Amino acid sequence: MAACNGLFVYHILGLASLVAVFYFSLLGEVDLRFPGLLPSPGASQSHDASLPFVERRGAQLFLGGRPFYINGWNSYWLMDQAVEPASRHRVSDMFRAATGMGLTVCRTWAFNDGAYNALQLSPGHFDERVFKALDRVVVEARRHGVRLVLSLANNLEAYGGKTQYVRWAWDEGVGLTASNDSFFFDPAIRDYFKVYLKALLTRTNHLTGMQYKDDPTILAWELMNEPRCITDPSGNTLQRWIEEMAGYVKSIDRRHLLTVGTEGFYGPTSPPEKLSVNPGHWFNNYGLDFIRNSKISDIDFASVHLYPDTWLLHANLEEKLKFVTQWVSSHFEDGDTELGGKPVVLTEFGLSHLVKGFEQSQRDAFYKSVYDIVHESAKRGGAGAGAIVWQLAAEDMEEYHDGFAIVPSETPSMQKLLTEQSCRLAALRHGEVEAKRILKAVCG
């Protein structure tokens, strides 16, 4: 009788476990540390323990032994929206909409310093509630077969940025100066940042039991969103910071790719013909030096941004499109030549609907121009590794719109462009498993 009772209890517990798994699946809180807990129905099944890392081989990115070309999107707000139960659905909605267009890479913030829903409350002190939100983002990406580019800091004040680090040091009486650029040269602040880097890279995801540094869902780390050091136009201060922080990241994590996060402006050590590509002479004074910054051995691929409407205020559409071709082509060529064979990714590009005289056809023409250049580089095996649009948003997220936001379901022409680019790149076999999935599910 005892054996029968035990068997009965065993079956009851088994049924209860299945019910629990189903229940927590609906909440997005499935613990993936055990092989029996599978992703939700319909999600990509290509993310088991043997999921390969995206790698760099010369001037190209590779996945599973085949070239990998990025057609991706920015949604910087994912961690923030994953904190509160009422808004978490936006994360799932966004991944679902993006993968419906065949997008495979998302760039998002892995920082929030001292602001609302801050990840880092003060130097070295973290909010576990927010860290769990980032865990959820990583798991949600994994469920949908999406790789993440995680940005680690902000040059701008949004979400704390370097301003918050400087304020912390100043308030504690250890800061050398109140200048925002002291983020790059103050020893105390550099130590603050290293503490954060170590905490993030060695974070154990509470849903998977896997440290971030070991999770292939993460495609790459980005040191900073749009770093600038205007107090040292020679570029030496920023260069030393990149070298130091890139080396530190690689001392902890050599499996993931690393990029700087620069906008791509050419600087003092660039050849004159490259300086002439900058959208104006004032861009030579931001302490940036694209080729020099990107040549650092610990940097795996170069990052470039593109905003012709804000950089070329008085240009017409034809002039902007000419600049687009020159800017993107020049940087892709740098990957093959000046950088000695490194991939180049356009990690942000966009056209704001707030610009006077905006028409959707202008945005369509701009994006198509970018996608054509990426596709041509990919076809010939060049250094152009892909493009990541700024930005996509889920429905009913107007408070996060910035003039550039695109809700795919509300913008059919952009939805079509994004999908077509996914299909063109998948046809070049960018990672066998993902290519087959996109071609079958998205491209018909």
TrEMBL record:
Keywords: Glycosidase, Hydrolase, Membrane, Transmembrane, Transmembrane helix
PROSITE patterns, sorted: GLYCOSYL_HYDROL_F5
Gene Ontology BP terms: polysaccharide catabolic process
Glycoside hydrolase family domain: residues covered: 53-393
Entry's Gene Ontology molecular function annotations: mannan endo-1,4-beta-mannosidase activity
Pfam families linked to this entry: GH5_mannosidase
Enzyme class, spelled out: hydrolase
Catalytic function, reaction form: Random hydrolysis of (1->4)-beta-D-mannosidic linkages in mannans, galactomannans and glucomannans
Gene3D superfamilies documented for this protein: Glycosidases (3.20.20.80)
Segments traversing the membrane: 7-26
Coiled-coil features, chain-numbered ranges: none
EC number per UniProt: 3.2.1.78
Family: Belongs to the glycosyl hydrolase 5 (cellulase A) family.
Protein name per UniProt: mannan endo-1,4-beta-mannosidase
Species this protein is from: Triticum aestivum (Wheat)
